[in-house]
Amino acid sequence: MELENRQALSEITRSMPDEILFSRTSSVAATIEGFIRKNKSLFDAALYRFNNQRLARVLGEAGKRGTRIRLVLDRTRYEESEATQELMEVMGIPFRLVRGRQGPGSKMHHKFALIDDEIVLTGSYNWTLASEEQNYENLLILREPSHIREYKAEFEALWQAGE
């Protein structure tokens, strides 16, 4: 029965249109938080910057309820940010560090998350307090299976390249 319910929910999710949010008119963090809270089993994200305590807290809660979480972070930004280092230590979730394609001096500049292999969150939004409170940012919510496969392949390649 549970498998049938998950399949039905997956079909509903995929039939929903893509969405675009702008930080000027709505809270991107609240939207991301809502997706993480509804997340059932898998959460993978490649993030250039990550120091938003609110999003870290909800990810930690998701991990405690059994969601497999993996993060890929930009190595330079991680090394420069004590706040990010502290969050990752407290959260205790698996993460890997990656540089850009040219090694030191280049960036792993992605900002995307895969949720249950059903939704991709992407856009300009860095997972930081400044992005939420100061910047003009955007978030694109994708549900197209072919887009999800592309982002999943990119995440897996980054995960394998990470340290």
**Average pLDDT level:** 91
Q: How can the largest sheet be summarized?
A: 7 strands, mixed
Identify the CATH architecture. Answer: 2-Layer Sandwich
Order of helices and strands: HEHEHEHHEEEHEH
Tell me, briefly, the overall form. Answer: globular
In the sheet with the most strands, the strands line up as 1-7-6-5-2-3-4
Strand content: 15-25%
Helix content: 40-55%
The tally of structural domains comes to 1
Strand segment count? 7
By secondary-structure content and strand pairing, the structural class works out as alpha/beta
Distance between the termini: 40 Å
Number of helices: 7
Radius of gyration: 15 Å
How would you describe what is shown here?
With 163 residues, this protein is α/β, with parallel strands linked by helices. The chain has one domain (18-161): Endonuclease, Chain A. The chain contains seven helices and seven strands. Strands 1-7-6-5-2-3-4 form a seven-stranded mixed beta sheet, with helices on both faces. The model has no long low-confidence stretch (mean pLDDT 91).
Outline of this structure?
The protein is of the alpha/beta class and 163 residues long. It has one domain: Endonuclease Chain A (Endonuclease, Chain A). It has helices at 2-15, 28-38, 53-64, 75-80, 82-91, 129-133, 145-161, and strands at residues 19-22, 42-47, 68-74, 95-98, 111-115, 119-122, 138-142.
List keywords for this structure.
163 residues, alpha/beta, Endonuclease, Chain A, 46% helix, 21% strand, globular
